[in-house]
Amino acid sequence: MGAVVEAYVIERVLNNNVLILRANNQDEQIVIGRGIGFGARRGSPFPLTDARIEKRFTLVHEENQQHFEQLFSVVPEPVIGIAEEIIAYAAKELGRELHEHIHVALADHIGFALNRLRGGINIENPFIEEIQMLYPRAWAVAKTGAQWIEERFQIGIPIEEVGFLTLHLHSASHARKVRETVRLTDAVTLAVKELERLLGKTLPRSQLNYARMMIHLRFAIQRILRGEPIQNPLADTIMEKMPESFGIARRVTQVIESKLKIHFPTDEIAYLTLHVDRFSS
């Protein structure tokens, strides 16, 4: 005999594109697909084989399941629905599954942000340039998500909020908590400010050299956090030929070390020196 297929019924209709399904064994599925919620009614059967389903999620951890259920008492269902559409789109565009905590965190954030914006309150985001530079793929997804929110709820989403959405999506795509992503971004921002102070000038954000340095700093920090710093066979030569730039790079990395409680090895500082030297001339 073939395996018994568990029957699912519609638990909630979040919007025309998102349904919450539940089986007899209490298994819950979040399903996303264009038009699957149109005309759908709670309690009606809905097979997981429906061809309109583009993406589905299951919350595995009990704590996340509980938090997701609690979410419905504080966040309107349409907000949870748009969050699920953004999560499905992010998984597709970023090419990886997101940590399941995003199903609670993103909807909660969007709901809170909409309440603030309706009240005329916008929170400053001092890391906009850095976020856009460090996480371009998540930024692109967040921009699209912000447009969907604007269209669905008829309210303008400022660029600061795009930045916050980006941080949520990036942290979920790398199994990293938002506060950890913020700490990393903050460390890079402080490092750039220190570099500008030491050089006595503002770095041109639009130039390729700036983008290259920002990307290098991000990956260098991630390598060090993972305990996988790279070797630099030219470190001694760089220190000899570019002593001033090496000294500046050393002081810049000290800012990051203090912020993140990590140690930058000489090989990594030497690589950063090459970026610093381009701005020193």
TrEMBL record:
The lineage of its organism: Bacteria, Bacillati, Bacillota, Bacilli, Bacillales. PANTHER family: CRYPTIC BETA-GLUCOSIDE BGL OPERON ANTITERMINATOR, PROTEIN GLCT. Gene3D superfamilies: CAT RNA-binding domain, PRD domain. Keywords: Repeat. SUPFAM superfamilies: PTS-regulatory domain, PRD, SacY-like RNA-binding domain. This is Transcription antiterminator. It comes from Alicyclobacillus acidoterrestris (strain ATCC 49025 / DSM 3922 / CIP 106132 / NCIMB 13137 / GD3B). InterPro entries: BglG_antiterminators, CAT_RNA-bd_dom, CAT_RNA-bd_dom_sf, PRD, PRD_sf. One of its GO terms (biological process) is regulation of DNA-templated transcription. Pfam families: CAT_RBD (PF03123), PRD (PF00874). GO terms for molecular function: RNA binding.
